[in-house]
Specification:
By secondary structure, this protein is α/β, with parallel strands linked by helices. It contains 14 helices and 18 strands. Helix 3 links the parallel strand 7 and strand 8. The structure holds zinc ion.
């Protein structure tokens, strides 16, 4: 199957892009559609790379609007964990389908997920046509290391059955919910099988104080001591990482994914130190976190919040510029997250923006995308050379919304 997009704008130039076997075969002003290509006239729309959501819990769309405005631990213990204990495959499938539809609509074509019934999320991602790196959340706070290992092995086996758009990961929930013994085991398994590890780290100040009290070290140093901090590690949050921890994270090559909206909604009281992290050489990405704590999955809208809160916290409008913020959201500042550059040989994943979007008509496109746009400016989304959305319409959206709402009602949400 071949696809050609003509009459698109890239860096102010009219270009065409041809896709073959899921990859970009050619891109440029001189490229023309070939006989047999499915051809789309972009009508002068801007061609941009898609966004990467570096941290979420997709099926938590089911929990949207029922967070109760609580702090992190009471929210988890009273609102989330009791309902999660009752989740079925169907709940997770429809919750994740809704998340995929929302992400696609907002220009996100790849996400990093940590959630129960990971095979149901993988099925949803496969049916939606997008990409994800998925891990079962691993806990042994009130369980046993043996059960944690069983759960990790079972999910890895299940996830291996899906195609190339699904990548498996290990996902220990956090240093305060997984034992030292299990963290060491996860670090070894990750090294042995070259598996990414996603973990929440340094989200609240309480987590830092407890880590120091219990382990005599700040979270990043503790994680390093137990063998989990490597170039395969994706740290969600990193709000309280201090300069020594940032230097260590950079040295190990681990990625930090900032989740500014979830942090502000749960009022963690701090801001991920982006400027210090980038100066230290830490790869950085952007995530929404789950819809339970955001409640939106519109990464483009979160991108504005990310940039603004950086400027505000530093009392310096030059603390981050639009180009840097955009690079973070597309995964270009964190090679492990799976950015897709617009160049021959790269996966054929890209977006066309609405040519008539009022927010994009005047001024610098990147600045407009960061400060003025929301996901509503995305017109067309292509993943692996397949057109998944055209004219801002996601196929089957009505059914997906209705089925997800039905599952949420079943859970009493
Ligand atoms: Zn999270």
């Amino acid at each position: 199957m071949t696809l050609a997009i003509e009459n698109a704008l890239l860096g102010g130039e009219r270009v065409a892009v041809r896709c073959e076997d899921g990859k970009i075969a050619a891109i440029g002003a001189e490229v023309v559609p070939q006989p047999g290509d499915e051809t789309i006239d972009a009508g002068g729309a801007h061609l941009v790379p898609p966004l990467v959501n570096g941290h979420t819990h997709a099926a938590m769309t089911l929990f949207r609007g029922s967070g109760g405005d609580l702090p992190l631990m009471p929210w988890l213990e009273e609102k989330i964990w009791p309902v999660e204990a009752k989740l079925s495959d169907e709940d997770v499938y429809w919750g994740a389908r809704l998340a995929c539809a929302e992400m696609l609509r907002g220009g996100t074509t790849r996400f990093w997920d940590m959630y129960w019934h990971p095979e149901a999320t993988a099925r949803a991602v496969t049916d939606a046509g997008i990409r994800a790196t998925i891990g079962a959340p691993l806990f042994d706070l009130n369980g046993s290391p043996e059960k944690l290992r069983e759960s990790a092995h079972r999910s890895l086996e299940q996830l291996a059955q899906f195609g190339p758009r699904i990548a498996p990961a290990l996902a220990p929930h956090a240093i305060y919910t997984v034992s030292e013994e299990s963290l060491r085991w996860i670090g070894e398994l990750s090294a042995e099988r070259d598996l990414p590890v996603q973990i929440h780290l340094s989200e609240t100040e309480k987590e830092v104080q407890e880590c120091i009290a219990e382990h005599g070290a700040r979270p990043a140093f503790y994680l390093d001591r137990v063998g989990v901090l490597s170039e395969r590690t994706i740290l969600a949050h990193g709000v309280w990482l201090d300069p020594d921890e940032l230097a260590l994270v950079a040295e190990r090559g681990a990625t930090v994914v900032a989740n500014p909206v979830a942090n502000m909604k749960l009022a963690v009281g701090g801001v991920f130190p982006h400027h210090a992290a980038r100066t230290a050489g830490v790869p950085v990405g952007l995530g929404t976190d789950g819809a339970g704590s955001n409640d939106s999955l519109d990464l483009l809208s979160d991108l504005k919040t990310f940039a603004l809160v950086q400027k505000h916290a530093a009392a310096d409008p030059t603390a981050i510029d639009a180009g840097e913020a955009w690079a973070v959201a597309t995964g270009a500042r964190a090679p492990r997250l799976g950015a897709t550059p617009l160049e021959p040989g790269a996966p054929a994943d890209f977006l066309l923006l609405r040519p008539d979007a009022p927010e994009l008509g005047i001024g610098d496109l990147t600045a407009d995308l960061v400060y003025a746009a929301s996901g509503a400016v995305v017109d067309t989304a292509v993943v692996a050379g397949r057109v998944l959305m055209r004219g801002g319409e996601v196929p089957e959206l009505d059914e997906v919304v209705a089925r997800a709402a039905e599952q949420a009602r079943r859970l009493g949400l």
